[in-house]
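Morning F.,

Quick status update on the modeling queue. The single chain you submitted on Monday has been processed. Sequence for confirmation:
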Amino acid sequence: MTYDYDLFVIGAGSGGTRAARVSAAHGARVAVAEEYRVGGTCVIRGCVPKKLLIYGAHFAEDLKDARRFGWDVPDCSFSWPTLRNHVLAEVDRLNAAYTQTLTSHGVEIVAARATLAGPHDVALSDGRTVTAGTILIAVGAHPAVPTCAGHEHGITSNEVFHLPEVPGRILIAGAGYIANEFAGLFHQFGSHVTIANRSRDILRGYDVSIRDRLLQISLMKGLDFKFDATIEAIERGGDGALAVRLAGHDPLNVDCVLFATGRVPNTSGLGLEAAGVDLDVHGAVVVDADNRSTCESVYAVGDVTNRVQLTPVAIREGQAFADSVFGGKPTRVDYDCIPSAVFSHPPLAAVGLTESQAKEKLGSVKVYASDFRPMKNVLAGRDERALYKMVCDGETGRVVGLHMIGPDVPEIMQAAAIAVKAGLTKDQFDDVVALHPTMAEELVLMK
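Structure tokens below.
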């Protein structure tokens, strides 16, 4: 059959744009449909604008610390609208850059909602139906919102970048990476921050020692945590404040409730059943190792598959798809030893197995650690301590996990993750001469 396109991509986020651009470079006739803005969650309302806010939040402590380093810094005021507007302007710039990248590679951008009407048919909200030899689903995910009474009074990470002002009191529901990142930055902006979590654990999946250190530091800074706390109801009073009822805790009065309770694949109403595409119990597209769904002509990459919800993973999947299907170079993504970071305050980073995971998988493990006060914190008069932890195979000495919390650890982890991925041993780490004086030197000095 002759189709309108060789590839039709639904969703112009990180994975979809990479797949579309590379497929077009391989000679495919490609179109991508995007109903909102090119760039997806990461660029428009996720990791990029959030990281810019985090940069802005760091000045709160940096300006105070500067006085200990001899700088005559006056008391400074903070303008949320200034930072917010500059961040949104950068989002606009990136949106234009992503659009230009696609069009310069010959990809047609369709500004419409697209749904599947069959294995090779795509229905567009402008009334057209187009056909494609291959369809790629790259629609990402959206924030989950609890079903408690009054949930409509809360916001999610989608809306937080557009707040008219910094809330004086903010309740953040959840204790994952999104919750802890926004908790840290709003605290630095002057908000009283309360985190309400339905369990007793923050950052599940990260090493216990590291997440306990973050909790300790957060409490020391003045953040409030409510554990085993589920929001039962939210009511807005006449003064605009929100009265929040929590199970097992006293009620709270806050100015803003931010839901950071996970993300849900954007598969609802996508017409996947028309093409015979199966979903799992979480509503994610079921795919094989080659990103192919249960329909031979339909593939999926990124958060919509709910495998690893990280932007670089979506990009790798989009690249692998394009190279495999249109580039004549079969490629699969290796999901082992993916590094990750939480841009909390302070940040943490990890790669490989946690101590408990290593014990369960390997049996015999050896753990090395460095618990120290960064030099800058010493002179600044801060008691905040960093913690680096190395988990090794007890038999071979191979480093199977690396976990860190402290200033700049995400920047350090990228290079360290290469060593862990390569299977280097503790002895090989120790053979490297320390780069002094740095925080990174602790990686080769652990005992």
